[in-house]
Design goal:
By secondary structure, this protein is an alpha/beta fold. The protein is built from 10 helices and 10 strands. Helix 4 packs parallel to helix 5 and helix 9 runs parallel beside helix 10. The longest helix has 18 residues. Bound molecules: 9-methylguanine. 9-methylguanine binds next to strand 7 and strand 9.
Length: 323
Amino acid sequence: MNPFHPIPRTDLPRPPHALPLAGSAHVWWSAAGVDAATRARVSAPRAILPALPVDRPLVMGIVNVTPDSFSDGGTAQTLEAALARAQAMVAAGADILDIGGESTRPGAAEVPVADEIARTAPVIAAIRAAGIVTPVSIDTRKAGVAAAALRAGADIVNDVSALSWDADLARVTAEAGVPICLMHAQGTPQTMQADPRYGDVLAEVYEYLARRIDHAVAQGIAPGRIITDPGIGFGKTLPHNLTLLRGLARFHTLGAPILLGASRKRFIGTISGVEAAAARMPGSVAVALWAAAQGAQVIRVHDVAETVQALALWRALTQEAGE
Ligand code: 9MG
């Protein structure tokens, strides 16, 4: 049987049986006829870190420190450029900075641990030395990279392999007591776009994430420290991506925050006919607004200022008068 699938709504005024979707001040769902345990699970706020609000979507700014970054052409490869990018994102309203030293674009090669640490840890240390207190996530599959990043001042682990790449990453995360994002991917970045197949993509990604949550908890990670992500573009065709985006609210039934990363991805270029990744900002903002309306807690983007502005308008329009 499929898990409970709340229908997210933003229309106003809200009826008496409306409950906040996962703590949102903007998205609600109708709890009429739903049992008490499901109501509580689907409505409860999902805190990521004490400093971060729980009632609106958070914007996670992408700081790639990779020479082959698909979206920035490697212009953020030096420490100074990466720091400047982080500062600009904070000024534009980013809630979280996601620092990555290994490209996850389709076909990307693995980066040795030492190189990945050399790319990311100094950037995180420089961010902290510059007085930036914005939470930082380390985008890595590797325990050694995560440990170095956490020592340098990172607060969150963002693992696109959902703890399937490096058996030691669960221990590092559990011992640090930090949140971790578990993302679904079919295959690795090297292989994932070679004819991905599913019977029912929404059900299979949901079940996979449920299993990875169980695995993380069995490894000592607190359930309240787990973030989930359907992994748009990671071993998915265009129809798979659209099905996951349409059904995004189902993942609230997992009881964890939802992170959505679609920014500048290939499917946006395919639908819009825009080949250059850097020119896919408008489509990326459209998907960010869609994710917000599905109650996603974190939206991972390259274009922070544009996304923050769009979400400010969306929040004003979806907030009940007097709130
Ligand atoms: C690193 N990275 C690239 N795309 C991503 C996505 O969609 N989600 C998460 N969590 N990380 C991503």
